[in-house]
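request received
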Amino acid sequence: MTPSATADIAAAAPAAALAAALSTVPVSGCRPRDDRAEDPAADPEITPAARPRQPGSLRALRPRSRSDGRTEPGSPERALEPLLSRLEQRYGDRITAHRVAPAREAKFAPFPEDLDPALRSALAGRGIESLYSHQRAAWDSARTSQHTVIVTPTASGKTLCYNLPALQAARETGAKSLYLFPTKALAQDQVAELLALNDAGSLGVRAFTFDGDTPGDARRAIRTRGDIVVSNPDMLHQAILPHHTKWAQLFESLRYVVIDEMHTYRGVFGSHVANVLRRLQRICRFYGARPTFILCSATIANPGELAERLIGAPVNAITDNGAPAGEKHVLLWNPPVINADLGLRASSRSQITRLARIALKQSLSTIVFANSRLAVEVLTKYLKDVFDADPRLPTRVAAYRGGYLPTERREIEQRLRAGSLDCVVSTSALELGVDIGALDVCLLNGYPGTIAGTWQRLGRAGRRQRTSLGVLVATSEPLDQYIVRNPDFFFGASPEHARIDPDQLLILMEHLRCAAFELPFEAGESFGAPPLEEMLDYLAGEQVVHREGDRWHWIADSYPANTVSLRAIAEGNFVVIDATDGAKNVIAEVDWSSAPLTLYEGAIYMVQSRPWQVERLDWEGRKAFVTRTHADYYTDAIDYTRLKVLDEFEQDATAHSVAVRGEAHIVRRVAGYKKIRYYTHENIGYGEVRLPDHEMHTSAVWWRVEPRALAQAFTRRWQALDGFLGAAYALHHVAALLSMAELRDLGRAVGDAEGRWHATVDADGRGRIRSSDDQTPAARSGAPATAQTTAQTTADGAIDAGFSPTVFLYDNHPGGVGLSTPLFDLRDRVVAHAAALVRACACSHGCPACVGPVLKSDEKADRDPKRHALTVLDLLGAAMPRTLDAAPEPGTLDAVPAQARAPTRAAR
Amino acid sequence: MSVDTPLSSRLALLSRQSGRAPVSVRPALLPTAGSANGSANIPGAAASGPCAPTLAERLQRMSLRAHAFERPTDDQLAERLGGRVRAPGLIEIECRHPLDQPHGLQSLASLAQADLCWLTGGSSAAASGPHRSRRVFIDTETTGLAGGTGTVAFLVGVAWVAGESLLFTQWLMTRFAAEGDLLDALLTVVTPQIEGPVEWVSFNGKSFDLPLLATRLQLARRPDTISGRPHHDLLHPTRTAFGRHWPDCRLQTAEQRLLGVHRQDDLPGHRIPAVWADFVQFGDASELAALVEHNRIDLLSLAALLPALCEVYLRPRPGDPSGNESVDVAAGSLRTDAGAIARMQVRRRRPTCARAHLTASESQLDASALLQLAALHRVQGDWQNAIRVWQGLYEQGSLAACESLAKYHEHVARDLHRALVWCDVLCLAVPGSVDHQRRRLRLLGKLGQHAGPDLFTTAPLGQAAPGPRATDPAKSMHPAEGIDPGNGTDARKKRPDGESGLTPRRS
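response:
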């Protein structure tokens, strides 16, 4: 591996090489500065509000015209230099690190000897005279029928890696190829590119998209005549494989299967897709085809491993990227402290808004990533208030997220490519390879949750060999604070492993049904790790298959693929219907799992930061009726989680506590919502929500403290509760970091193991106990117990044997996707690091960066969540008492050997 | 999840709790951690809700059923069904139905000669040429209606006219392994014979039976020689003729209403997959005979439907004005959708036939069918009837009829004054229409040449022209009444001359 530090830094280079290549720039800034930074037109401190925009003054504010300025080479550098120096001059104390990845030269390789001359001239027609080294390596690998995975960033020409072999195969032997993209939009992008290449060389290769929008009469032509069929895993699963006889011509001569954006196939989705590919390969065998798989992935730690698990065969990994890249600056940015006692910092939103304003005023095209749809809408509103105040001008700022209608998303993408949009605020939806052209600045509102995701988002700026800037602005979340305070950890960290579990029993069985429907199973076949015969006998018990001799035939009157969704366990999207003035227009779609959090009656639902209010939610009909409103607030759901242990698989007792891994039943409920005023973020009211519970059965790791030790450590229950809630907060974040899961893949809860009660943090930031039967708070901590509250569920009571609070960290997917086992193996390090995180935090009584938000009034009330959390964490880790000094340094996380102590399996 | 639990128990537990099982099984019924640790070793068994049988219960039930029946051998079954064992696991049943014996109220005598050109659109000469093709009626019974590769046709029935009778052949699989032999047997039907190439006749076979059989052939690695042949799917003409008046267009409905057949002790169609699955899995052959009989009657009804539909399409019958849907078939007053039939005949380029259908049930036609009828009259040059229909339509408020009348008077009758009256009606009814205004201006221009420019004061476009010419239609919207009191025979027989009626003139 060459020490090529890259704009797409983490792309091909392992983290160590990357860290070595990144030259550290002192925060004070000793790099030569450009005097043009003092250009008054670029003064970031003049707010547009103070200088109202007039149509006539547009030119003065924005030196480049919108349409042509983008393509001028060199101009971004000129604009970036003053921006960087200004940022360092004014905000040096907020920048905790500034690293530069130098530009990287392209590595070329000649066209292969056997490349079809027509293809060669088609490439020449597109201005391509030689290949990048990784494109050539992919060609050589795929042409020799080796399954191949190519790890490259976006805009490195990865499409040629698979288009060339597929086109050549189609022209040489009429062989066919199947392309799979995770989304319809990406598929359409790629077909457009394929067709452009096809036209450039008059190749006569027929490429079609096949998805849910394909009209019925076109489908037959695609099935029989398509040389390259571009589809998605869902269509393969529900429409192609169950009707494979109609696709016989495709399968009989299938040469390549291309799987782009492979890194998106992880977790539940990835486990499903791996099973769909098992089915695909089974069908291919039936038709006597052995296609070669070509996979493309953004940077993850284990591309080869993921590819091999996905397709169940050895894969040749190509990780050396030959594409050029421009210079890239990365800043880590911590908002200033505004209340030292509480550890309160200015909000990341205010910093992002400021940075975006500075960038936009210098005519730097900017992409802002936020971690939730709500944050996208709020940020968009703040930026639109500044830049799109004049309705006579075309908009400069747009929001982009899942849930928008496809036409709206296509329009935004098109405007970004054309350069007629200056700023887009997006969720992870734009992380994928949707072509949006080159952007100059990328701002991250908070750590995206994974190292790989962070680099992928930062990679959105600086495509096409231009100098670019990426800024990671920390929120007050513990992970964010950890990262901006430990830049070496961030810049040195390996990107995450993408984990899938194709043998997750529920997922496997669903696809076994589908596979049995597609072709009878025969003895000697295998499908996943568990013994096939045992699984088929189970299906025979359900009377869906019938064994006859050595064959199992599908016998049920059903179409199993229709009941299996690859994306989620959920049952279909909600549509949001604008019923203003009696109209009925669909304005958005919301997936099933997030509907309770966004579409409850009374919620403010935003599209492009225009607010609608939800009037009525038709839960059964999956519809939400909204009307236009002019609220000066937005709403945020209050949800909580109840958990009950079902089974214990293994446990490990320490001196005062026990850690357990097992199965749990989880109920999530949205209890109400807060109304939050714009800008001030003050809480101006509450509403109730009545929606069905969201239930889930999954695996979890939990810790409980021996009652005697608990009684020694705490005198009152509320103290212990504060401690457990704070400890859960810290444990959750540390566990996500250490197990390389995304924060949302893990859930946390505090309660007793029987599901009799659970603890929540109420709107005042205080722990309270909720009994599971009665949804009203049984007792509010600090308040006198009412007559109804029993001693069992009173937070104010004393510690006794019946009081056994437990911290749960659970796999946040039904059935679990295998996160609990690595977490259990890491249990000691998780506890130790959580204790170190809390102990090292500069706050006095706790803050969002360690044990969660704490209110100012708590100090007076003699509450000290931080101290109690530390007590709990020390009890949990008591087997190996650690002091702060003994806690491992962040940089050495991976050097700590795995725990030697073998867990004892629970008696069964 | 623990690996020492048996797979079936783990699965039963998991699927019940992940919400994949019936909703009635609430996770609240699950054992707590304590009981899971202590007493209940098989969580699935302990967690059984009252509504969903556990795997163990199901297995027990299955083994009970398995012992309750003694699976008949192929020979025993063949004997019971009146057939023979054609190949291991495949029973072939043949029987005949004399053509002189009606099915319900429908005679089958004309079956061999029934002319299908009303359906195919071909000329009738081709159908009776020397190389007549052989019509084969086909119907399958399957393990489900879902389609796709997981649906098996376990019983295939075919029938064709042989001599003086209808010959049925049915092939029934008694196990999956016999599918190849069943398909081979089916393929013999289409192998070239002296009797000519095969044309399929089916009910919904175009979208279901034949594609399914093609899939089965592909899976069994047989050549697909059954697809791509002429295929008359009687569902479509049935739907065209009766779709508006019947609750559904299933074969059973058609045979009750069209053929007067009422089956006794018939096996309901929705139970068919379960009957065969029970036989294959547990040896329960008790209902197989009923299943085979069901298929045979389906084929017979399909055959009888052919002459019945020919009657409907080729011999227009006046509809039953009462609209009573439970009419006696024998009375010959079965209500059809003449408009839809006529549209189909027009598509098949048989306007005469279409006109006959519409004329026969003119009193029940809706506006669009009447317009079609008038258009057919017009095409045939029958202006009298066309005008009659248009005027009737106009009285119901049809502007299209109004426009047709305006055109007729302008271009055919060349009575510009009347044309102008009709045109004014249109302009008043559709104020913004450019076409109507243009026509009106053109008419005014033509009239000006004949009658002099001073005859008319030009009214602003879109507004009522002065004088009774405009106010009359505006008030009543029935200009025909006011203008042409002889709105009957006289006006239609002779070319309207402008003097005989009350067409307003200012002279």
